[in-house]
Amino acid sequence: xxxxxxxxxxxxxxxxxxxxxxxxxxxxxxxxxxxxxxxxxxxxxxxxxxxxxxxxxxxxxxxxxxxxxxxxxxxxxxxxxxxxxxxxxxxxxxxxxxxxxxxxxxxxxxxxxxxxxxxxxxxxxxxxxxxxxxxxxxxxxxxxxxxxxxxxxxxxxxxxxxxxxxxxxxxxxxxxxxxxxxxxxxxxxxxxxxxxxxxxxxxxxxxxxxxxxxxxxxxxxxxxxxxxx
Length: 229
Hints:
By secondary structure, the chain is of the alpha+beta class. It has 5 helices and 7 strands; from the N terminus they run E-H-H-H-E-H-E-H-E-E-E-E. The longest helix is centred in the middle third of the chain and has 17 residues, at 99-115.
């Protein structure tokens, strides 16, 4: 496997219900203050897993500044089952190298969750796009013929692979990897493992609404501003 320079505008799509600014973004001026603020919140918050993930970040691994809370949320508030290249131990920043792939990735995961529920359809979800311009070296998995890394449903093998390579757990860690999308032919994704490697500030992109009818058929809408009055 090779290392490649990736220079690209990247696209990450998240649910609009998530806040754009963290509660500590304006009051924690440095990493030490941010860690103390999280510890204080943990004393009165039953959701301790994000703070255990914070402890997994070594000194110098916490990003601060404008929009830093958006970046940190990807690492601290990940799924309990993890993602393709991360376990529940610590999240990662996933994004696509083009907008259509970002939509395809999020449609798949949201639709899968809805289909597991008896009351999944009809449904609608509003989402917003986060845009980051990356210019960094990545472990390049594009074109690698490995069914374990690219299994459509089982992430156990790809998670183990990443654990042996990713910052901060590997002896020779990589900050990021770039890989082919499983959800859209020709699409490419990036997975950034180090919070401080996510370029700031993160830009607000477009807004979307995913609408499923009673039969589970999907329509993707782009929400635009209205010049009013």
